[in-house]
């Protein structure tokens, strides 16, 4: 058990990088070591956001390049970069590395070409990475693949049920806020395309499909939708029980969790209640007309779906309190 650790962040100018930075500044056991950004290297932290000048006195160093942040000798490096970019990086010889991208989540390297659109440049190293979803597959070793946002919501809902449901025909209908696409400008995320609209995208081809199948042991049909909101994600999962009481299984599985809560009967998860938090809400409903159970999970894509989960993984690996630095209390209005 360690009492303090130095942490560096690459891609700190992006959405997940900024969210990770904010949680590190609120964490009593982490000391910020280096912040990487190729576009801001050599500039003050306040260039990214003037609020970094009022961080309660904790020092944010000047930005350095992502390569320098990776090699900065910290106990922990959080990689907050695009998939293809992160896949090509050589991890430092020592210390924990947590990759928030999808570059190290799949154990079968041949899947990258089909689902991510590039051949993995370091396929032989994928077996060295562990998939860190704290409630289902706690992180082990020093190289951790942080789960994807849709995968997190679907797996929190379905993981504890995987031996109690019919594996055929599971459907996951999922919706996410715009920050899920990152901060770089794309035609799909222009205000003109997003506002007053809800659009399905990557239907049948989203890269989280094989990630979910890898953990569950069977594939699901996932249809993601883009919502005209900044953040938050809801996955509505349609399953058939093979006999067990699925609500009872989920309630028991998460009984001791401070992060995931199973809501009382009749209460549905709600985007607004999880936005800006690192929590997950799960609702369970019986559809007796079609003999299906509907399990709904809501998270914040940047919280439990990215930076909050990365910090939760750090806490577990270093023996810190699991919820240290996380945003858990809800905002009532
Ligand atoms: N957004 C989400 O909700 C979410 C959730 C879970 C996982 N993720 C994953 O987390 C990773 C980061 O996502 P994000 O949303 O933070 O992305 P983002 O907002 O686009 O930020 C990515 C950052 O990476 C840096 N970068 C380094 N090399 C780059 C390159 N070759 N091309 C473009 N940017 C480069 C950029 O900063 P500099 O140019 O300043 O270095 C950029 O700010 C992605 O792999 C994403 O799939 C995202």
Helix content percent band? 10-25%
User: So what's the overall shape?
Assistant: globular
Structure summary, number of beta strands: 14
CATH architecture of the largest domain: 3-Layer(aba) Sandwich
Largest sheet: 7 strands, parallel
The low-confidence runs, each spanning 5 or more residues with pLDDT under 50, are none
Total of helices: 10
Largest sheet: spatial strand order: 3-2-1-4-5-7-6
Counted up, domains total 2
Listing every helix as H and every strand as E from the N terminus to the C terminus, the arrangement reads EHEEHEHEHEEHEHEHEEHEHEEH
Overall pLDDT metric: 96
| CATH homology group of the largest domain | NAD(P)-binding Rossmann-like Domain
Question: The CATH topology of the largest domain is what?
Answer: Rossmann fold
Q: What structural class results from the helix and strand content?
A: alpha/beta
